[in-house]
Write a structure and sequence with these properties.
alpha+beta
């Protein structure tokens, strides 16, 4: 699939088939996250793969939207590897986690899978429920799997502002 086709056709999948994701396909997706650029190449990401029905059911305890996906990726950053900008004083770990998430999301779509970038969850509860290390910050959830046969883009998917409203040439 050409990259433009990946960008043009990707949408947030909120209804998944229960078809298992093949291990080799999952490995390609995880590899895309491993290769993602991070600030100062610190590579502080830690991706948790939640596959078993028992473990996935734990998301219900903290109201995360995972849409019954057969796999949910938890994207966290090791706090000691989150670079703080000298100029803005902003923690770039959130940016790094976003890049890792995006690269995995696009790779998944290119391989015929669907995802939905989820921000509707309590990061601290996810850490507690899954007993994640205290020195990590959970930033994103990425439900992952094959889209259900009747899944389609949401009503706002095609609504995009023109470049003239989002780009300024200086």
């Amino acid at each position: 699939m050409e990259f433009k086709d990946v960008i043009d056709s990707r949408y947030s999948v909120r209804k998944f088939s229960q078809k298992p994701v093949e291990d080799e396909v999952l490995q390609q997706i995880l590899e895309a996250g491993r290769l993602a650029p991070t600030a100062k190449n610190m590579q502080g990401q830690h991706v948790y793969v939640v596959k078993s029905p028992e473990m996935r059911a734990k998301f219900e305890k903290e109201w995360a939207m995972t849409f019954d996906a057969p796999i949910v990726l938890i994207i966290a950053m090791k706090q000691e590897l989150e670079w703080i900008s000298h100029f803005s004083k902003l923690n770039r770990g959130e940016t790094d986690a976003a890049i890792v998430t995006d690269e995995m999301m696009l790779q998944a779509h290119a391989l015929g899978l669907g995802t939905c970038w989820v921000g509707w969850f309590d990061p601290q509860k996810v850490k507690e429920v899954f007993d994640l290390p205290e020195n990590e910050t959970v930033y994103n959830l990425l439900p992952l799997g094959y889209p259900a046969d009747d899944c389609k883009p949401g009503p706002l998917h095609a609504s995009r502002k023109p470049l003239s409203e989002t780009v300024t040439f200086l």
